[in-house]
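cron nightly-structures :: item 1 of 1
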Amino acid sequence: MNRSISATALVLALLGAIACNAPAVTPLPTATAAPVTPSIVTPAALRGTWTAEVRGTSASAGVWKLLISDSNFALQNPIGGDPFTLDPTAVTETSVVFPPGEDCPDQTTVTEGRYSMTLRGNTLTFTLISDSCGDRSATLTTTPWSRGS
């Protein structure tokens, strides 16, 4: 009996030694949640369809539409096509920030667009703070925007 206990103890000791020298098992990576990008909420007073007649700039001449929803701004070029989003990263009743316009022509340094806004009745006016995208700046700031069709 002594011998069988010794043999069992020896087997357990050998298994322990083998386990101690075994390569470590790499745990499976744990899933990490994608960072949640807070969506913006556009103040209700700014929401709607706005128009402005833009002339004398590098942007297309004619009546532009600015569509402001509860979470985005979109411009529609007077020469046609679908509205394109401006994807603001921040907006308040008096200011808006747009991401860098990577596809905007004639930029030596690409920066975000920062504007102050003034809403008086059915007129919305953008004032440039800084923006490397001249077309976006010209379209938004050349003339006030009127609420309507």
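cron nightly-structures :: done
Residues 42 and 70 are 5 Å apart (CA to CA).
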